[in-house]
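If you are new to this repository, start here. Below is one unmodified record pulled from the training split, so you can see the exact layout before writing a loader.
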Amino acid sequence: MTISRIHFMAAGAVLAMGCGFLLTQESIAQDNHNDAPAGLPIAAKYDLSSLKYTPEERKNLDMAVAYYRDCVQSHNFALRDKFLAQSEVNHNPNDPTTPDGLMAMLNSRFPKADPPHKQIDPLPNLLIAKDDMVLLMYDQQEKEPRPYTWSRFEMLRFQNGKIVEHWDVGDRRANSQNWKIDWCVKAGRKDCPTP
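And here is the target side for that same chain:
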């Protein structure tokens, strides 16, 4: 199996953001300075008092949470232009690569919008911003072959207040994503993932 340049860059970005967070956490904690966004939606097992963000990073955090809560999880796909740039690229190998394709795929599965959700669900276990990137990480529980915890992620890059790139776990476990590929092919889209 070869690792594509995009996967390598995404993995590097995740590592860099994580290392940057860990490296700066101690120095920020020494300042005892807390300017993390109020009500940061996170299910963290660590001290949030050390988080420090620029105004732009705060805005990106808020936009990332609002995108998942209001557009994706509430199935209100009409809001996509509020969050996604027209040129946004989705790097998940299982999904259409364009905003039109992604929203059409999600709408095929969830044709009716829910009432607006009050918060993102599930809450991320880690939510950090660095420059134009936002990373959301979630703990996942597996029972087979034995109980264990692993993490999945969503990473977004922002430009001019909108999402221009998205990476996440490209889960290709036994048929878990086949419905997406089947939908895309049947819909005759040109932005389909390759099986």
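Two things worth knowing about this chain: The CA atoms of residues 159 and 176 lie 32 Å apart. The first strand starts at residue 84 and ends at 90.
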